[in-house]
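Lesson 9: reading folded outputs for more than one chain in a single document. The general rule is that every protein is listed as its sequence immediately followed by its structure tokens, and records are never interleaved. Here is the first one.
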Amino acid sequence: MRKALCLQMCLVALWLAVSVVANSDSAVSTITVSQGIDAAYSAILTQLKKDGYSIDSASKDAGIKTSLDVTGGYHQTGTHVEISFIPESGDKTDVKVAVMQQKRYKALSTDPWSPPKPSAKDSDALAAKLKQELGW
């Protein structure tokens, strides 16, 4: 009985992860840069630091992920940024920008965070801001 319950929970978690990935492509903004991956990575990392983002992890291969920024009182929203770099032919790089949001209720007992969902509006706004600030 315990194995069956564990298997069901694992399948639900896998389904949630797949559905988030499947729905995330429409909410991710793509910037095509006429620079190599090294130059694009260092420019965006530097600009995010200038803009006041706290970097959680960063590498050219895995991308950049910022720390969770929590707003709200009892109904909290956590927001973080995920940026990935995809090298194209020659000196072209695709930069994918996703602003991810999670929600939870925090009262006497704190509920767990919901699965992260990309915000199309916020992703587009951040991509446009980065393009303007970096002159792309």
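And here is the second record, again sequence then tokens.
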Amino acid sequence: MSSWARVGAKCVFIGGGYRHDGWNYPVANTVYTVRSARVGLEGLILLLNEVRNIVQSNGVEPGFGAYLFKPVIDISDDIALFHAPCPGLPVVPPAVVPKRQSVTSRSD
């Protein structure tokens, strides 16, 4: 399962996929919230809070392949990945690099 595809995750529909009559579909370049995720014929299938479909005769609500979506990465989440220490590794302060001195040449 994609690490971002979890309940509550925000994603953007990039378009494509099969179209079936009578189904509701997401709109391209629109942000959606994952309501549920399951494995289906197309791999990982997402159900969205903003798009609901009628449960079919097999007892399953139609969803959409996760490959049709990209995760929304919040800037604070993105920055946190680079500032959070790795579990199990000691936190080492960054090295202090001395300021570079400019070199001037003199003519005698």
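What the second record shows: DSSP finds one helix and five strands in the chain.
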